[in-house]
Design a protein that fits this description.
With 424 residues, the chain is of the alpha/beta class. The chain has one domain. Helix content is 57%, strand content 10%. It contains 17 helices and eight strands. It has helices spanning 2-17, 23-39, 47-64, 79-83, 92-100, 105-114, 123-133, 153-164, 179-200, 206-230, 239-251, 256-269, 291-297, 323-332, 340-354, 368-384, 403-422, and strands at residues 70-73, 88-91, 143-146, 168-171, 278-284, 303-308, 358-364, 388-393. The protein has a four-stranded parallel sheet, with helices on both faces. A two-stranded parallel sheet has the order 1-2. Strand 1, helix 4 and strand 2 form a beta-alpha-beta unit. The longest helix is centred in the middle third of the chain and has 25 residues, at 206-230. The N and C termini lie far apart (45 Å). The model has no long low-confidence stretch (mean pLDDT 93).
Length: 424
């Protein structure tokens, strides 16, 4: 749509010219896209993925238009607890993806690096820091982050507190899952709830949290069923559809709205034809902009991503009667917490459930954990006889990804899968 492309170019030009005056224009674009996804959904997508895109566009657009309605977080922040205070959680990683919709990631990354941010910092974080430092994006009243997965979280939120005065809570997640470790994190969550009470003058209602955890249990069960069905049926989606699902599972988990959507998808997918192609389990981040990957996985009946480890990163069944302990156990048992051997083992169990034909791991530039542990996962997949491809690139900064190399390696890998099928 040329009108959309023109507006994206216009917003980028205006932001580079004067970042302080660009926020209203960005919001207008987000709101317009929210309306577009509702009344003019992409025709080539399955109905469930159409609804998912509309839901996530509405969630982000509506929150950003109400500065008092949200707090910043990373994608592993406890949105269930934050929601008890009438607040939404906007992760800085997801917001960076939305900013890249205006093709502004390169400008914000350069801005951050020119102010002294290390080039080795994750590009999602650099995009966000550049957007804040340039005054293109206003700051909220509060933020929260965890130590989970990314070692850049604490430094990024400390920097934002120092530069923009945004106070934040840091949840220190232990590696151990013994009773003392669970209690240690549960106590931090209790203190966090008390801090939210004080800051936002809203009394904490534990019953709300319990109900959210009940819904979350049901949602996770329904999602596992959807992944299973997606290995049996062709359910046309796009690379970005899986990014929206990841956002939903980390920002809307525990809401009736999101549970109803997954239930709809489980019913809807059964009306679609049988899937005869190759089933792919995706590991780590999704470079939704990558042209070669889009060509391969966007509505392709030959190759379908059936699940991603970052979408179902916790299989913990929660006990609503012990909400703080349950949330603590969920966070500690996250697939991204602890050693990479733990993560490789968890992905192996996911393979035992979903039986993918192949695994693709995307090693995001700047993410040391992913790159450093990829060989451990490959060894785990070799034990199970599952072919695995390791791709290097950048989840958001196009300049750090070489589409030609990705295209060559991906095509060779998929061709190998097809040849193996023919020789059986």
């Amino acid at each position: 749509m040329w009108v959309v492309d023109k507006y994206i170019d216009y917003v980028k030009e205006q932001t580079i010219e004067d970042p302080r005056k660009s926020w209203g224009k960005m919001l207008l674009g987000f709101q317009a896209n929210k309306v577009r996804t509702k009344i003019l959904p992409k025709k080539n997508l399955a109905k469930g993925y159409q609804k998912l895109e509309a839901m996530m566009m509405s969630f982000v657009a509506d929150a950003l238009c109400q500065p008092d309605s949200y707090v910043w977080g990373n994608i592993f922040s406890p949105c269930e607890l934050i929601r008890c205070f009438g607040l939404k959680t906007l992760s800085i990683e997801c917001l960076s993806c939305y900013l890249s919709g205006y093709h502004l990631e390169d400008y914000f990354i350069d801005y951050a690096q020119n102010t002294g941010i290390a080039p080795t910092l994750c590009s999602y974080h650099k995009t966000f820091v550049g957007a804040i430092d340039s005054d293109a994006v206003p700051v909220p009243d509060y933020a929260v982050t965890t130590s989970l997965s990314c070692d850049g979280n604490l430094n990024t939120f400390r920097y934002l507190e120092k530069k923009k005065g945004v106070p934040f809570t840091f949840l220190d997640v232990p590696y151990g899952d013994d009773g003392a470790s669970v209690e240690y994190l549960a106590e931090q969550l209790r203190e966090f709830a008390h801090e939210l009470e004080e800051r936002f003058a809203v009394r904490f209602d534990e019953e709300k949290l319990k109900e959210s955890l009940r819904i979350e249990n049901e949602t996770r069960k329904e999602l596992v069923e959807f992944f299973r069905l997606q290995s049996e049926h062709y359910y046309p989606g796009e690379l970005i559809s899986h990014l929206y699902m990841m956002m939903g599972m980390h920002l809307l988990i525990g809401t009736q709205e999101f549970l109803d959507l997954i239930r709809f998808m489980n019913e809807d997918i059964q009306t679609y034809p049988k899937f005869e192609g190759k089933k792919i389990l995706w590991v780590h981040l999704l470079p939704f902009y990558q042209e070669s990957l889009q060509k391969c996985f966007n509505t392709n009946q030959n190759y379908q991503i059936i699940a991603s480890d970052i979408i179902l990163d916790s299989a913990e069944k929660l006990d609503p009667e012990r909400p703080f302990h349950s949330l603590a156990r969920k966070i500690i048992h996250n697939i991204y917490n602890g050693s990479y051997s733990h993560r490789a083992s968890m992905i192996g169990k996911l393979c035992d459930t979903l039986h993918p034909d192949a695994v693709i791991q995307f090693c995001h530039w700047g993410c040391k954990q992913s790159s450093g542990g990829s060989i451990l996962l490959k060894e785990e997949m070799q034990k199970k006889g599952i072919p695995m491809l390791i791709l290097d690139g950048d989840g958001i900064d196009k300049r750090n990804s070489h589409d030609g190399q990705i295209k060559t390696r991906l095509e060779a890998f998929l061709e190998m899968l097809d040849v193996e099928e023919e020789t059986r």
